[in-house]
Write a structure and sequence with these properties.
The complex is a heterodimer of chains A (248) and B (256).
Chain A: E1 2-11, E2 14-24, E3 29-33, H1 40-47, E4 55-60, E5 63-64, H2 70-77, E6 80-83, H3 95-106, H4 111-124, H5 140-153, E7 158-162, H6 170-187, E8 190-194, H7 200-204, E9 207-212, E10 215-220, H8 222-226, H9 231-238
Chain B: H1 2-35, H2 40-51, H3 55-78, H4 86-124, H5 127-133, H6 138-176, H7 181-191, H8 194-220, H9 225-255
């Protein structure tokens, strides 16, 4: 389980997280939603130690990772996989090399075994025949799927998805959501999904948390969030211009 | 007045913090090179990029440097009737000073800028974050191979620079201006000692550290977006070049 306790983070004078409290239950899909620029990706990066809180604790299986050194942090990261907003594929490597990279560097598997596992991972995400292509030869949706294959390859217990469907057309968007749901059902990992896709995200989530003005203002099941009386939550879900959220 | 003092204080603190971060960067990279060196293929790839692919520009620069040294040297030495010493003047200038410095400046411009841009782009496109999320140390894959390759490649490039420069000087001095070829090489053989060669190699080696250190550091801590990478690249080339020249003065005063 991941637990954030009173997490605060500022960049210069800009307060991004202002006392976030959140529990991510094991084996479930938790979505974090909220307006753009509210710090959802920053929150996600705290969970895997890419950013450290100014104050507060980030507990992964009871261990506060905010205070860990590089070696201990890497041991915790072995539990994680992450799909970045823009997939973050290594642009000088082919699709095959990208997916194979963690296996080549962290395991003693033979080249043949690695090739088999890479092919299987790419098949899981519906990609075949693109092994030799470079990331800049792929569409946005294909990059995300390669990123997902790479994240799944080491059988992580927790996968973080940073806006996995941003910039994709509705069909691809649905396909990615479906893929998250299917792989989650198959592998049983804990998923944290940062998303703007309302209402689609409610279909794949077990729990939803709403981040606004640096803190979690509401958390519950998708049904509870959709029935929320909180004016900000209502405005955000309906996409209304009237309410507490103002365009900057 | 107090406001001015505050600004000076804030600037001093930020400079100290930056210097501390830079020092930490090179110390940690050195530790990784010794304790957990990356796969040899990563180092070989970097030797090819930093060393082999810089050889053309180094050879070109060396040839013309040697030629111009011969022209200027001949002009000065004829005033004293000592044109027979041209080989010594050319070779000592190249081996002790110009070979290490100019080859390092050429590598900074060609490979150093590319190193900063590569690491900077990896930073802003979250590729470095991706490495970290895989529990892989970016220093092991991105920084330490470049440091090792730079330290190995620079002395070799410097040696090429020296040899090509001496032959460039020979071409102008002997073939064009009529200096006796026996005097050109004979005086050189008598005057150039082992200390001249190894002091040039030590300089090259230390310049290799400076190039990899500054260029990797600037890329690793690049600013945001394309403009951030562009600024980091410019800053890396300028800082490395200035540092090479400043360090050259100090190391020369020690090795002299």
């Amino acid at each position: 389980m991941i637990e954030l306790r009173q997490v605060k983070k500022s960049f210069g004078s800009q307060v991004v997280l202002n006392g976030v409290n959140l529990e991510i239950p094991s084996g479930q899909i938790t979505a974090i939603i909220g307006p753009s620029g509210e710090g959802k990706s920053v929150l996600l990066k705290h969970m895997i130690g890419l950013l450290r809180p100014d104050q507060g604790a980030v507990l992964v299986d009871g261990e506060d990772i905010a205070t860990l050194g590089r070696g201990a942090m890497n041991r915790v990261r072995e539990k994680f996989g992450m799909l970045f907003q823009n997939a973050a594929l290594f642009d000088s490597l082919t699709v095959f090399e990208n997916v194979a990279f963690p296996l080549q560097e962290k395991t003693k598997l033979s080249e043949r075994e690695i090739a088999q596992r890479v092919r299987d991972a790419l098949l899981h995400v519906g990609l075949a025949g693109v092994d030799a292509k470079y990331p800049d030869q792929l569409s946005g949706g294909m990059k995300k799927r390669v990123g997902l294959a790479r994240a799944l390859l080491m059988d992580p217990r927790i996968i973080l998805f940073d806006e996995p469907t941003t910039g994709l057309d509705p069909v691809i968007c649905r396909a990615i959501h479906q893929m998250i749901k299917e792989t989650h059902a198959k592998f049983g990992y804990t998923a944290v999904v940062v998303s703007h896709e309302i209402p689609e995200i409610f279909d794949i989530s077990d729990r939803v948390a709403v981040l606004y003005q640096g803190s979690i203002i509401e958390a519950g099941t998708p049904q509870e969030i959709q029935a929320s009386e909180h004016p900000m939550v209502r405005q955000f879900i309906r996409g209304s211009l009237d309410g507490p959220i103002h365009m900057v | 007045m107090i406001s001015l003092l505050e600004k000076i204080g804030a600037w001093t603190l930020s400079m100290l913090a930056e210097l501390g971060r830079m020092l930490n960067f090179i110390l940690y990279t050195t530790y990784i090179c010794l304790a957990a060196p990356g796969h040899p293929r990563h180092v070989l790839k970097q030797i090819s990029f930093i060393g082999a692919r810089s050889s053309f520009v180094v050879i070109l620069t060396a040839a013309f440097t040697g030629m111009v040294l011969a022209l200027q040297g001949y002009y000065t030495l004829t005033k004293f009737g000592s044109e027979g010493m041209l080989g010594v003047a050319v070779s000592l200038s190249l081996i002790r000073e110009l070979g290490p410095v100019l080859s390092a400046l050429m590598v900074t411009g060609r490979a150093g800028s590319a190193i900063t841009a590569e690491i900077g782009i990896m930073r802003i496109t979250e590729q470095i974050d991706a490495l970290e999320t895989m529990a892989l140390d970016p220093f092991k894959y991105l920084v330490s191979p470049k440091l090792v390759a730079s330290v190995l490649a620079l002395p070799l490039l410097c040696a090429i620079f020296d040899v090509v420069g001496i032959w460039g000087g020979y071409l102008v001095g002997v073939k064009l201006l009529g200096v006796n070829p026996g005097a050109y090489f004979g005086e050189m053989e008598r005057s150039v000692v082992w200390k001249d060669v190894y002091s040039g190699m030590i300089k090259s080696l230390s310049f290799g550290v400076i190039i990899a250190w500054i260029c990797c550091y600037k890329g690793y801590y690049t600013g945001h977006g394309a403009e951030g990478v562009s600024r980091a690249t410019t800053s890396a080339v300028v800082t490395s070049s200035v540092l090479i020249l400043v360090w050259d003065y100090f190391i020369t005063s020690v090795l002299l």
